[in-house]
Amino acid sequence: MSTMTANLTGVWTIYKAEMARMRRTFWQSIATPVITTVLYFVVFGGAIGSRIHHVGGVGYGAFIVPGLIMLTLLTQSISNAAIAIYFPIFSKTVYEILSAPLSAMETVLAYVGAAATKSVLLGLIILVTASLFTPLHIVHPVWMAAFMLLTSISFSLFGFIVGVWAQNFEQLAIIPALIVTPLTFLGGAFYSIDMLPQPWRTLNLFNPVVYLVSGFRWSFYGLGDVGVGLSLTFTGLFMAACLAVIWWIFRTGYRLKP
Question: Which of 37, 44, 53, 115 is least buried, going by the fewest C-beta atoms within 10 A?
């Protein structure tokens, strides 16, 4: 067997094992986000939607769909990738992975690829679930898929970093729970930041999630709080920064080697 075939086999083996974990934890991985989406529609769509009928010419129920999907993508990408690499470090089986005929890039490809795949699947499930509550019309479907894929990959890379950094389960959960979720709520997931008074509108432009939600919403309805070019630029820079940190982790062996 050639080195290339052996490496691809190793990547595929890790990828399959991570995807199998999703099937084993069905309620946590799939059912819970769907139930949460239904609750968001009941609360936000019913309570707030009865008072805010349209935002930027889009029905409020349809307006919050990109924000709901983005909330799922961000939190699930980080959690899936972080847990995937944390457990091998916690159980010391990471040494077996490091000694396998896999390069650092191939190891990251396997774990991040599986985490991003899970997030995209969940995003599509949320999209289908949301369509049962409100009519959806996606203006730029190709860009919608691109934003979904880029966001999932970028934050899966970030989740990989979190998983390496975390030394206990509390640290593993603190980033998505106490940082990403609040930033998503403040970042225009359920409203346009143009609805905010000054100086909060300007201050919110320093929230990186604003650019993700705005670009993703633009792909649906052709409108956003910031330009789509800025959204793509931020996503690309964030991905590059995560790749640089992961390169440093493998270069130095930080938390991977004794």
Answer: 53
| Residue the block writes with tokens 């640290």 | 171
Which residues, in sequence order, are CB contacts of 163 under 8 Å at separation 6+?
Answer: 81, 82, 83, 84, 85, 86, 89, 172
The candidate with the shortest Cα–Cα distance to 155, out of 198, 212, 200, 196, is 212
DSSP designation for 91 = T
Domain ranges of the chain: 3-252
Q: What is the pLDDT of residues 52-77, one digit of tens each?
A: 667 778 888 888 889 889 988 998 89
Q: How far apart are CA 103 and CA 115, in angstroms?
A: 19
Decide if 187 contacts 156 (C-beta within 8 A).
Answer: no
Q: List the alpha helices (DSSP H) in 132-227.
A: 141-165, 169-175, 181-186, 200-203, 208-221
The single-letter code of the amino acid at 151 is T
Put simply, whether the predicted model's pTM sits higher than 0.70 gets the answer yes
